[in-house]
Amino acid sequence: MWTTPEEILIANALWTTRESNRFFALQERRGHGKTTSFFSRIIGTFDSLSDAHRTCPYRILLSQPDSEVSYQIAKAHHREEIEHHWHWLEENILERLDSIESPEDVRQFVFGKLESIAKAKPSAAQQEADAPVIAFRRLFQMPPEERLVTSCLCNYWSNKHTMPKKGWLYVSVNHFNFYSFILGEEVRLSIPWTHVVGVVEVTRFMAPAIRITTSTHKHVLSSVPDREMMLQLFYQLTAKAMSRLLEISDDAFSYLDTLEYETQLMRDEHAERDVPDDRLFEYYCHQYETQQYRELFRLPQSEQLESRWDCAVFDTHTREPVFGRLYVSANYMCFSSGKASGLTLILAYRDIATIELTDEARRSSDPAAVMSAICITPHGQKGHTMFGFMADPAKIARLALDRTTEAKARRRKHDAAEKDADVIVEEEHILKRPLHEEYGTDSGKEVQPTKQHHISLLKEQQWHAFLEENACGASTFRTGAERDLVVKGIPLKLRPQLWMEYSGALHDMQAAPGEYARLLVANRGRTCLAIEEIERDLHRSLPEHPAFQRDVGIDALRRVLTAYAWRNPEIGYCQAMNIVTSVMLIYTSEEEAFWLLCALCERLLPDYYTKKIVGALVDQRVFENLVTEFMPELGRHLEATGLLGMLSLPWFITMFVSVMPFQSAVSVLDCVFYDGARVLLMLGLQLLEDNYDELLQQPEDCYIMATLTQALQAISNTETRTTHKGDKKGSNVNSLLHRAYNKYGHYVTNEYLIKQRRNVRLGVVQELQNSVSRSAVRTVVGDSLFDKDELAFLHREFHDGCMKVAFWTQQKDRHKRRYLDQTQFGALLRKLTEWDVFADAMYTLLHKEGPVNFVSFTNALGIVCRGSLNSRLVMLLRMFETPNTRKFPDKVDHQQLANLWQHLSELFTTNSCEKDMRYEQAFNEVVATAVTLASKQECLPMSVHVSDGEEREGTAEHKHGADSARQTGVGGGDGEGEDKGTGASETNVVVEKGAPTADDDDDNDDDAEALSDAGDRDDDDDDDEEVEEEEKEVATGDDGEQNAGDENEATSKGGQVVVPEASEGQHTTQAEDGEPGEEEEEESAQKPAAPEVTTAADMTPTPAADADAVLMMVAEEVGSHPASHHPATTASTPASATASATTQQRDRTRSEASLWSKASVEEMEANPHTETMTFKVFRAAVLSQPLMVEYFERQVPLRERD
Amino acid sequence: MATRKKVLLKVIILGDSGVGKTSLMNQYVNRKFSNQYKATIGADFLTKEVTVDDRLVTMQIWDTAGQERFQSLGVAFYRGADCCVLVFDVTVPRSFESLEAWRDEFLIQASPRDPEHFPFVVLGNKVDLKDNRAITENRAKSWCDEKGNIPYFETSAKEATKVETAFLTIARAALQQEKDEDIYHDFKDAVNLDDVPDKKQDGCGC
Prior knowledge:
The complex is a heterodimer. Chain A is 57% helix and 12% strand. Chain A is α+β, with helices and mostly antiparallel strands. Chain A contains 47 helices and 21 strands. Chain A folds into seven domains: 120 residues, no CATH class; 117 residues, Roll (PH-domain like); 120 residues, PH-domain like (Roll), CATH 2.30.29; 157 residues, Orthogonal Bundle (Helicase, Ruva Protein, domain 3), CATH 1.10.8.270; 149 residues, Cyclin A, domain 1, CATH 1.10.472.80; 83 residues, no CATH class; 286 residues, no CATH class. A seven-stranded antiparallel sheet of chain A has the order 9-8-7-6-12-11-10, sandwiched between helices. Chain B has a single domain, classed as P-loop containing nucleotide triphosphate hydrolases (Rossmann fold), CATH 3.40.50.300. Chain B contains six helices and six strands; from the N terminus they run βαβββααβαβαα. A six-stranded mixed sheet of chain B has the order 2-3-1-4-5-6, sandwiched between helices. Chains A and B meet through helix 16, helix 22, helix 26, helix 28 and helix 44 of A and strand 2 and helix 3 of B. Chain A: Keywords: Repeat.
């Protein structure tokens, strides 16, 4: 880029001049490029550590003949860029400068020019700010879609390094990248977050560090500035990557779910896209804080944290200040005193009547001091809340007041919505009362012995007293003291209110009034998979309760579940939700049950009910770890039977409702709504502990299960009837909970759970991913040319490719995220094989059969790497099929052949592995042979005899044709050779020799030209040779000359080996080809519109085919036999052969549609003559060259770079 | 092989949600039908002692959750199964179409030693609902034939139609599988050599 001129004093220090003239010098920084001198390495090291390595290794200086000072006028990261500038200077400026005399004027002129250029370009300051981004893209070859979040200097330790490497950490949205260059040793890492299986804090030589684990490596980073924040960022990015993995890993059944919806991940991505690049880190930090805030106070998902202030709240009774932090967001003002005293307070603006700034006498050491406080009075309440000890009370008061006004305005809007909703509630007969009021809480007849009744009354009194005492305006103080009361069981009457309040469901409901009714009405009559599943389970939820034996309960349950399925299609409906909801309906109103379900699904039991029940699996794993920790012996015992996971799943996912009598389980619900999922873990531990001895004695898994089932069934509740008759010990649920809290409450805290979940979650998701991968491999293994291990490797690569599609394209359709796009397909082909010149053509070919999935990807790759000669040739030809090929199966399609030659010549001349000139030679022979064959096939009646000598000359000519075709690039084949230089048209000339019969009108002009060209062949030939050699010299410099030298040698050698055999082939064919060719023409006339080439040829083996067979046989004698190759291929994968035996059949049905499956490859092998005329010509030509046969037959190893 | 006194046969029941897996199991084990079952979460099991061809065996029948998302459970208990029962509802076409996926899923998760010959039994349940029938007997049978002559029964857990017969076949198939496993364990190498011949078809004639 051009820069604002910058003075440089010593122009040559650290820089080498590459080019120079009177005025300018192009310099390259030492330590970059290929130089390996020690000095260069030092500079390289220095650059990589300082910010300098982010600046550019190339620059252009304006030198001044009269002074030591030079001016830097341009710099660049890439040689091409700087050369571009250099040429521009040479072409546009240099001449003018020559006419200017004074150096001062030269400077002025150049600067003036630069200024005018700079005006048209973004400012230099902007470019400076982008420097890390540019370095990041340059170092890791990242596309612009990959966004850099932050970068910093830190130390890196890998598995093998005993010393840390200092270098730059680049954290981007989808990758974790590190670059270091120390004394010639380069470390360059770029790991997608989706590969990460663990992010933990560790210590490395006494210093805190972050360890990032993948399935194969451990990467440790130390001396990371702002480590806490960086760690949080890592957590966020890995969590995001895991959601992406989960989203992509739908499996066999997913086709059932056809509903289109926006996932949370897509919403997040959308929000993220709107964030400018330089604010991305800030955005992530804020997201983290907001999430913490919402979790702490259980606020709705939409609530965004605005600001935080340190302050104190005055206790209503004692008037003592409690210190903590005040949080302000759009709808709430919250206060938390932190862990110590555990006081929390949530104020909703809509409840606030007045906010006053008052002077409060300070009660601390200095009683005379007076301080400002904010006094908040709620609607219709006596009490008020007072905040003090804050930095800027006036500002906070102002803020709170503004928010309150806004909330009031919203509230008015909501009122209208609520009124509408009320109408719907009436119409839909939505239940406004809990079901227990009519049907009781028991499955049988409601019997409430007086003793129990007394207890519940007593409890109610206790609760009322407590609530009274802790009332704090509209809200209540939560001090942690109420926990004991909750554990004892919330009284029936208070349950709806307290469940709603504790779970945060109340906030959700108030934030979206009328939402439940709206969902019901908006989706009336709609259906989807979830709705069908719900319908099936309605009668299988709580069948023992009378309310669910009649419509009243069933209808309510249906409404709540379907409303939720529409609210959150990402979850839809998960079995267990029905059981939980039916219990909630007994104790709360219908709308409350809906919001409680929302709170459970989205907050209290995170990810429990998602498509992969990940949340439940994660908590299960945390639970297993806890069991091993607290009861190691039992842990080992249960682990041996492999049962614990399956046992605990219903405990967690139904909150014990499905395993205990629901009247008892409701006490568990009380605690879960109050305290979250940790209650489930503690209770599980306590249960195992209570049955410890008995469980240890049971050897068989089924008896362990039976023991626990019995114990759970016998759990009773103080309030309702006692245990079932005949049960041995039936413990009381409330005492069970009490003991669980006492024993494990201090250990299994919410913080503990969050931390453990984070650690475990990555592993769980990766395991799910692995099982998806295993299934995918199993599905294709029988029908693939690769074995199981190779397929596993390929699936990883394929999956990463899909991930990149998901990373970098804004794909709305979540199903499409599971396929490769053209870019990624090309990238993979380049990475894995040497046939990447065909990437685009192959992608287009595959895409005709549908999006490129794992099956079509491996099939295509199978042909590239393991395919037989025949299948490879078929595929090559198909890639360049022109639309009319299929209509005239028995004519050679010259267009198609021409396209093919161009690409093939690329393969044989530019591919680094195939620099060998012999291939180039052989390839040209093939082209020549094909041309001859093609012309014969079409012009056979004329029976042109081609002598040996001519043939050879022709060969030489085609070689040049092909070469120049390569240089002029693709596209020469479309019949417009004129514009594309003589070289390109030469290829066409030869190939289209027989084209007068072709039906393509456009071609006719060219054909005529071609024919005349062919007449002047000798002259053209010479010209071409000259032109071409010149071109070569310009393009490749020294190498080109060398090649040209070798070329002649190779040609003569190749000629000696090849020509006699080839020409023998020609003669034989010619001799026998004559008449059948005619017949074949006739036949093609008879069947001009045969829809399927292959079938037409299949059913009527023409004499022409026989003639061709002869041709091929001759050729096959020359080359090795193609069929001999195939058994070797299958034999090379014996493992897959046996393992696949079972799967083969079903897979056959699945991938039958695929043209490139193993089965169809075999088919091709069995009937090599069933392809089009073009194919026959192509094939015969290839077979005429042993070297080509060898090339197309050999196995290509998969490149496994890691 | 008849020397061992106690034989425990492990049978896994799979199929879409709501096809009647729990009901079939309870009808067979407890000879009771109830429409008061809750949807199965995770897995459940019952055991029953039966006499098969003069041998006393204990059948351990595992009932599973039908909803797809519970598949990610890791299904440790598929391992060591002796027979797999695939159930569909003759009134719900989708449940029939899912059989293939269930069979695959089982073979992948359980990875039996000889997947070609692992015994499956297919039950088309709810045949009492004649009016709503959507899958014909022929269609189900031809699918079973295609998959290697899987025995097929048309059952009704509600009316106890063919439940006993079906489970007897299941027990026999499981017993045969158990024997094969024994042979395999006893003469591991010997079997490995002639593993290929297709003769030892599980001869569970239905």
